[in-house]
Amino acid sequence: MISSRFARPVLVAAATLLAVATFGQDFANIPASEPSITDWMFDPVTPIAHGVRNNALFILAITVPYLILPQVLLFYCIWKFRKRPGAKPATFHDNVQLEVLWTIVPALSLVVLAIPSYKLIKFIETMPEPDVRIEVTGRQFYWEYRYPDHGNIRISDEPLVVPVRKNIVADMTSADVTHAWWVPAFGIKMDTVPGRYTQVWFNVEREGWFKGQCAELCGALHSKMLIDVHVVSQEEFDAWIEMKKREFAGE
User: Fold this and answer.
1) C-alpha gyration radius of the chain
2) Which of 12, 43, 201, 232 is the most exposed place for a label (fewest CB within 10 A)?
3) Given this model, what pLDDT does residue 81 score?
4) Residues in contact with 202: Cβ distance below 8 Å, sequence separation at least 6, in sequence order
5) d(C-alpha 41, C-alpha 187), whole Å
6) Residue 125, burial from CB neighbour count under 10 angstroms (0-12, 13-18, 19+)
7) CA distances, 174 to each of 78, 119, 177, 186, 224 (Å)
8) pLDDT at residue 29 is higher than 50
9) In this structure, are residues 138 and 175 in contact, taking their beta carbons and an 8 Å threshold?
10) How many CA atoms lie within 13 A of 126 on its CB side?
């Protein structure tokens, strides 16, 4: 008999071995080149993602002093005005010049932050002339993609395939509830709303797999509503389009 002290670790180990034996084949089928959720901060791959990262770092540089300075002043005041024998308490009530200063400086900082931020927002919201137009429809709980300029090809539960270094404009909507199409490495996240169309664009600077997920709580299987984008060369994209056209013609 195994004592109760060791029973739990033994059961956990047995369950782990069983899970590996049962699902190991599924793990082995994951492509080695396919990364986990890609990151806009450390691995941006579109002009929008680069702009978002640079703006975030700029905002951080401007705002961090407002986090550090009050803490430094707080500890200084605790030390400077601590209770000591014979120390006289402060008799002043306010300091108008100081109050004006700490009002004007943060206000000017907000203006400094707003100028590049609004420029970035305008850049994100201005759709370029598309090289490829796609339509994205969110459904519980998967994504449906359509290529209206390429034989009206429609796919679902498959990776979105787009060519590298091309302007991709996506018209988005939802068939049921609000979803959000989010690929962090692209620097974009856009709600898909029932009965309405929203738009995003991206231009990916290198080939590869890029992952994302639905970023709007949309129901019981929200966590399974993942996004896969396969960015390929123009030649590979054209070949893929032709293959899909033949598939649809055959159906």
Assistant:
1) 27
2) 12
3) 81
4) 46, 48, 168, 170, 183, 186, 187, 188
5) 9
6) exposed
7) 56, 29, 6, 21, 17
8) no
9) yes
10) 7
Return d(Cα 99, Cα 87) in angstroms, integer: 26
Based on DSSP, count helices (H) and strands (E) in the chain, helices before strands: 4, 10
How many C-beta atoms lie closer than 10 Å to residue 172's C-beta?
A: 22
Domains of the chain as residue ranges with CATH? 47-82+94-125 (no CATH), 132-250 (2.60.40.420)
* Cα distance between residue 175 and residue 195, in whole Å: 8
- Residue owning tokens 């601590």: 82
Q: What are the strands of the beta sheet with 208-214, ordered from one edge?
A: 160-163, 226-232, 208-214, 179-183, 188-192
Lowest model confidence (mean pLDDT) among 76-80, 104-108, 126-130, 143-147: 76-80
Q: CA of 139: how far to CAs of 152, 173, 192, 219, in Å?
A: 19, 9, 10, 11
Tokens of 3: 């004592």
Q: Span 98-119, mean pLDDT?
A: 94
CA–CA distance, 137 with 56 (Å, rounded to integer): 30
pLDDT in tens, 3-24: 444 444 444 444 444 333 433 3
Give me the chain's average pLDDT, please. Answer: 85
* 175/178 Cα distance (integer angstroms): 9
Four-residue CA torsion sign, 174, 179, 185, 186: positive
> What is the residue type of 87?
A
For the record, the structure tokens of 134 come out as 């796609």
Tokens 């293959």 -> residue? 243
Q: Residues, the chain, total?
A: 251
d(CA 194, CA 191): 10
